[in-house]
Design a protein that fits this description.
The longest helix has 17 residues. By secondary structure, the chain is an alpha/beta fold. Helices cover 43% and strands 18% of the residues. The protein has one domain: Rossmann fold (3-Layer(aba) Sandwich), CATH 3.40.50. The chain has a five-stranded parallel β-sheet, with helices on both faces. The radius of gyration is 16 Å and the shape is globular. Bound molecules: adenosine-5'-diphosphate.
């Protein structure tokens, strides 16, 4: 059983995340979306909300599981007895940070590999941050996120002051 962990904040999950995830399901027996608590990034959605949105998005994909984690990714990977970590690469601008992260994780634990996958070209400009910004300014994000995520974004933004 080959397991890959796909970690991230998923605040919220976008069609770009889903594109990479679907590609990974063809290569691994099991893909675990591991939602990081990411308190330092002051997420818009709570950890529980992000988990619910991811679960709803992957319903029907039998070899995908959604989970949450706190603390070091390498510890989580070991706990789950996974073989690899998956990260998405959109543009050269992602590379430097991802390169540093992957090599640091290897220093911390040499037992697993980090692999990178590119999304469909139409998603290379997409990020959770930009989707939140467009939604906040009243724009239409229906081409960028699943419909239940779009609805959750409107509901969440309606509760915020200003
Ligand atoms: P993080 O806060 O760890 O960057 P994100 O939720 O923003 O978490 O992203 C999780 C992973 O998904 C990262 O590897 C990121 O590069 C990748 N990713 C995000 N958006 C896209 C996209 N549009 N296409 C491909 N990969 C993406």
């Amino acid at each position: 059983m080959r397991t890959v962990i796909y970690p991230g904040s998923f605040d919220p999950l976008t069609n770009g995340h889903l594109d990479v995830l679907l590609r990974a399901t063809k290569l691994f027996d099991r893909v675990v979306i591991a939602i990081a608590k990411s308190d330092g990034k002051q997420p818009l959605f709570t950890l529980e909300e992000r988990l619910t949105l991811v679960r709803e998005s992957v319903r029907g994909l039998s070899n995908v599981e959604a989970d949450t984690f706190e603390g070091l990714l390498v510890d989580y990977v070991q706990r789950r007895s996974a073989h690899a970590v998956l990260r998405g690469l959109r543009a050269v601008s992602d590379f430097e940070f991802e390169f540093q992260l992957a090599l640091m994780n290897r220093k911390l634990n040499e037992q697993f590999e980090t692999i990178f996958m590119m999304p469909k070209d139409t998603y290379t400009f997409l990020s959770s941050r930009i989707v939140k910004e467009i939604a906040r300014l009243g724009g239409d994000v229906s081409a960028f996120v699943p419909d239940h995520v779009r609805a959750a974004l409107s509901a969440k933004l309606a509760t915020l002051p200003g």
